[in-house]
Specification:
Length: 120
C-alpha cells in the first residue's frame, strides 16, 4: 500500500516539534520550541536560532544566526535553501524531510557551540 506524502506545512511543523522535543542526543537537548500564534521559534539554549513559518506548500525555516552553516548543511542533507536578506530560508516540503531538518539543526547547534568556545 502506498501512502500519500504529507505536505501540509502545519503538520510538518508539528512532527518537527515532536522530533526536537522527543530527543536528547546529538545536542538536541539544547533545542526547544516556543510556539506563537502564526510561527514557532527554535531556541538554542533558550535563545532564538530559527523561526518555523508554514507556507502554502512547505514549512519555511528562517535562520538569522549561523546563516552560512545553515545554508551549507541544508544543501548537504538535501534540503532546498535560499538566502533572503539577512537570513537563510530552508524549505521542508514533506514530513519525510523532518529527519533531515533535525540533522541540520543538530549540526548548526554544534557549530555555534564551537564558535562560542573559540571566542571565549
Amino acid at each position: 500500500m502506498v501512502e500519500d506524502r504529507i505536505t501540509d506545512a502545519e503538520r510538518i511543523a508539528e512532527v518537527l516539534r515532536a522530533e526536537i522535543e522527543g530527543r536528547e542526543t546529538n545536542g538536541l537537548g539544547r533545542l526547544s520550541i516556543d510556539a506563537g500564534d502564526d510561527t514557532m521559534t527554535v531556541l538554542l539554549d533558550g535563545e532564538p536560532l530559527a523561526t518555523l513559518e508554514p507556507g502554502e506548500s512547505s514549512l519555511e525555516i528562517r535562520f538569522q544566526l549561523a546563516r552560512d552553516a545553515a545554508r551549507a548543511t541544508g544543501r548537504d542533507v538535501g534540503l532546498e535553501t535560499r538566502p533572503e536578506g539577512e537570513s537563510v530560508t530552508v524549505l521542508v516540503e514533506s514530513v519525510a524531510g523532518t529527519k533531515r531538518v533535525v540533522d541540520l539543526l543538530a549540526t548548526v547547534a554544534s557549530r555555534i557551540d564551537c564558535v562560542t568556545a573559540v571566542d571565549d
